[in-house]
Amino acid sequence: MNSEVAEAVSTGPGGREREPAVEVHDLTVAYHTQPVLWDVDLVLPEGELIAIVGPNGAGKSTFLKTILGLIDPITGWVKICGAGYRRRRSWVAYVPQRESVDWDFPTSAVDVVTMGIYGRLGWFRRPRKHDRELALECLDKVGIADLADRQISQLSGGQQQRVFLARALAQQAQIYFMDEPFAGVDATTERAILSLLQELRNQGKTVVAVHHDLHTVAEYFDHVVLLNMRLVAAGPIRETFTEENLQRTYGGKLTVLTQATEDLLRARAGDPSLQQPTGPPPGQS
Amino acid sequence: MLGLELSFTARNVLLGATLLGVVGGVMGCFAFLRRQSLLGDALAHAALPGVCVGFLLTQSKSPLPLFAGALVAGLLGSLVILLVVRFSRLKEDTAIGMVLSVFFGIGIVLLTYIQKLPLGNQSGLDKYLFGQAATLMPRDLAVMAVLGLLVISTIVLFFKEFKILCFDPEFGASLGFPMRRLEVLLTLLLVIVVVVGLQTVGVILIVAALVMPAASARQWTESLAVMLWLAGLLGGAAGAAGAMISATVERLPTGPVIVLISSSLLVLSLLLAPGRGLLWSFIKDRRLVHRIQRENLLKDLYVIGERAEGGSWSGWEQPVPWPMLMGVRGQSSPQLSRVARRCRRRNLLSREKDGVRLTEDGLRAARGIVRKHRLWELYLTRRLELAADHVHRDADAMEHTLTDDAVAFLEEKLGFPTLDPHGQPIPALEEASR
Questions:
Q1: I need a surface site. Which of A34, A93, A281, B407 has the fewest CB within 10 A?
Q2: pLDDT tens across A85-139, in order?
Q3: In the predicted structure, residue B209 carries a pLDDT above the cut 50
Q4: Chain-chain contact of B167 with A112 (C-beta, under 8 angstroms)
Q5: Are residues B34 and B116 in the same domain?
Q6: Residues B162 and B188 in one domain
Q7: Looking at the structure, do residues B270 and B286 belong to the same domain, yes or no?
Q8: Which residues neighbour A242 within 8 Å (Cβ) at sequence distance 6 or greater?
Q9: Which of A67-71, A174-178, A209-213, B393-397 has the lowest mean pLDDT?
Q10: B230 touches chain A (CB under 8 A)
């Protein structure tokens, strides 16, 4: 573990004031001439599970990629723990969308996880035995240590997602950016991923995840960012994840989901504990 | 004297073709994995005008100016592709097609123009179209060897970086590796390989040296490092074999022979490679079909016996006559006897005078299948609340795919039931003894 980094970031109650995990100022992004994000101003707190929610084409993935420096914004800046991305690169882990890579690539699960260590290795140095051991540990944490040597195309969707999460764990970061970590996975994997995220939070890490399933936002996350090209709202679930805000985010597309969301909000109001994932409310399934 | 000269040429050809095969094979893996095989083809065609300009500027056929010209033209071609894709609405395949044909057209025009010049030393420049390995000189080989070594050592050096560029470039960028620069480096290497192959196979056929060894190697391995080694090996072998054949058989052109050999290797790999080969998946499919046929037969024999004696062993002790079995299975006699023969080979059935009978092994296997079928039916009716008369067909499919673990899980979830939705007993796992 990189104890220096851990110390610098986690400050106890007596320490200096907590730095926000992510600060975004006046961010505007466009592909060619097509604007994707407009004027996003945002501060994300440290040590929480944060969902980015919005309809298709709302710029959620673009937002994540811009924070990670993969896309250059037209205007605005992003700070991670008080500094630019270049200086905070080693504090950050990234889980791209599962569909973004070719899973028929000739490589094994443990090999992909080892890629999470490449950043620390730097140029030219190859992963060594202890790097491989770390990768195996990370696979164990996501529950698929037995599949370490399996060719990645032979893994199920859920297992592939776990491999990506293990790779992010191998980055040993403070902030985890995930693009739809729950997309297309089976129920068992979904529970496993959730408990992993909660464990990360308990260690004081921050997780920022693009999330699609409105039914589970309130159950899984502490903090929500509602995005539809512009920032609609951001804040703690309880105050921000309201029907009014959802209507503003999704416009007319929400009609079907409204009832379900109300149910969930009501269910959550009855159970203030966010630690315990509650089952779907009665009458839902 | 003549023999000595021939062996000198043959040696040069052998060295040149092997060198190109190895370098092209290794480099081709990256082009293959990034789905940029055609980019290699376009860059090779784009190199032709460069060769011509190199000749026009120096009026000599020494390798350095010609290679330099090819290098510059190839890079120019890749730059044009990049710019067209970024600044126009044309897609990459169109850009590649454009660059390939336009550059090649310019090359042919220049070549025709050069042929008509009153120089005297321009003959043989057209060998860069299809290659003419016999004209390889030691000085050419020296340049090729240096370039080849440069390519291989760069790949060894940047192996990890290139790997992440091919697999997940965005993740690589998030780690801080300059992916665009690595991409440019890889394209530069691709152009260098084209230059290495100019004289041996020519601009038109170089793509074969890139694509075929890589595609063949991919069939045999699931590791990138092994794939690089294997592609180099296959490419080198095809090059060497092509050179030898064209040296022994008169009037056989080296380049095309190499292409034919590596394409044969590719066909063999596509057919035979374990796991990915066509033969392999054919065998796998056959095995699955046979297993399903076997399991269906055993299941029916079980049900027949069950009905005969109300579930006691003696019902299965009685041979089931052929006509009865044919009626239940709805299959013709030859079909059925083929399946029965395969069952007998596995000691699941025994042939009796009037028909067939389940052996003890067969009964155990049959019980397992019926168990899966009935548990799944029960699961569907209980958990998904489907009507009992709607679940049979679905269970027919699932009984062949459910694993033992899944069955144990199902049984537990259902509370260890004894009867299926139709009221038939669900056979227990270990009940085989009489």
A1: A34
A2: 888 888 999 999 999 999 999 999 999 999 999 988 989 888 999 999 999 999 9
A3: yes
A4: yes
A5: yes
A6: yes
A7: no
A8: A265
A9: B393-397
A10: no
Which CATH number is B374's domain given? Answer: 1.10.10.10
A19 pLDDT tier (thresholds 50, 70, 90):
confident
Q: How many CB pairs under 8 A join A and B?
A: 70
Q: Residue A182: phi, psi to the nearest 5?
A: -100, 5
Indicate the DSSP class of residue A24: E
- pLDDT tens figures, B329-356: 777 778 888 888 888 888 888 888 777 8
> Cβ contact (<8 Å) for B172 and A118?
yes
Q: Domain A19-270 falls in which CATH fold? A: Rossmann fold (3.40.50)
Q: How far apart are CA A14 and CA A159, in angstroms?
A: 41
Both B234 and B251 in a single domain? yes
Higher pLDDT, A234 or A15: A234
B237 and B125, same domain (yes or no): yes
- How far is Cα A244 from Cα A258, in angstroms, rounded to an integer? 10
A15 CB contacts (<8 Å, ≥6 apart)?
none
pLDDT in tens, B223-257: 999 999 999 999 999 999 999 898 888 788 888 89
Residues of A in contact with B167 (CB under 8 A): 101-102, 105, 107, 112, 115
What are residue B66's DSSP bridge partners?
none
Chain A residues with CB-CB distance to B269 below 8 A = none
Least CB-CB distance to A106: which of B161, B175, B224? B224
**B61 found inside a domain:** yes
CATH number of the structural domain spanning residue B183: 1.10.3470.10
Is A280 exposed, middle or buried, given 0-12, 13-18 or 19+ CB atoms closer than 10 A?
middle
| Inter-chain CB proximity A124 and B158 less than 8 Å | yes
Q: What's the Rg (C-alpha) of chain A?
A: 19
Contact assignment for B160 to A107 by CB distance below 8 Å: no
d(CA A198, CA A206): 10
- Asked whether residue B226 falls in the same domain as residue B299, the answer is no
Q: Which residues of A touch B173 (CB under 8 A)?
A: 68-70
Residue B299 touches partner A, C-beta closer than 8 Å:
no
Same domain, B177 and B248: yes
Total of domains in chain B: 2
B424: in domain: no
Rounded to 5 degrees, φ, ψ at B24 are -60, -40
Q: How far is B160 from chain A (nearest CA, A)?
A: 7
CA A273 to chain B, closest CA, distance in angstroms equals: 29
**Do residues B294 and B266 both lie within one domain?**
no
Domain ranges of chain A: 19-270
- Complex confidence, ipTM: 0.83
Cα-Cα end-to-end distance for chain B: 89
Range of the domain at B369: 282-413
Q: What are B71's two structure tokens? A: 């290098």
State the pTM of this model. 0.81
